[in-house]
Amino acid sequence: MELEFLGVRGSMPVSGTDRNKYGGHTLCACLMNSEKEWIIIDAGTGLKKLGERLQSQSGEKPLNIHILLTHFHLDHITGLPFFAPLYFSNATINFYAPTSSDETEKYLGGIMAGRYFPLDLKETPSKKTFTKIPEKKFAIGSVEISHCALNHPQGSVSYRLEENGKATVYATDTEHPEEGIDRNLVSFAMKADILIYDAMFTPEEYESGRKGWGHSTWLEGTKIARAADVRTLYLSHFNPDHSDKQIDKIISLAQEKFAHTFGAKEGHKAIL
Ligand SMILES: [Zn+2]
Ligand SMILES: [Zn+2]
User: Of the bound ligands, which one is closest to the alpha carbon of residue 72?
Assistant: First the structure.
């Protein structure tokens, strides 16, 4: 399994020479299963780049794409109207979310409805399906997928993707409990090869007025990584206010607590 980060910024996209190392696009990651189908997690602005790649690669071949949505906050869905395959008549885009199929269609369609976009989601040429993720594990080709609820305003989920005994756990947009650590997430992430975790705030920022905002810190990420005995921790969902230099500092502090920590970077591929 090869996982690629396409967007690692939380809240809103950013640009600037001091934001290039980790990148300015909002949340999106992708992997291809052994049936050569794309499985995408979240549809933030990072999704656009993958669309461009698919446009140049696909030609006349039909495309079958799967998009797992963690929740509907804008930083996780605003790339969708700019995703080229949405406009391909030979593409099928399968959306999966914790909400009912009608709700998912309504929430995604909402950002393209009325005065927000020139074209409604329903009018785009691709075929679309909307599926509520089942309580139990399900599979997309050779990849088995499970989910667990996270602590976030209006709710969010973490996804665990497993193929050939290798597991990736994607857990952005979560706030750690007031005391102790999120035991549900620890057992969900147990022995994963990769854990991607919410590093929106430094512990100092979190303590000074960000409690209840639904996000976590690098320090909590290292605690989960240790308790769950994961192989590699990728910190992500970086704060738009944090420069590359500040993120470098965050990563080096985290490495003191959990040595195999990296900062997720746009374009970085993690091979499992
Ligand atoms: Zn977010
Ligand atoms: Zn969110």
Answer: 2
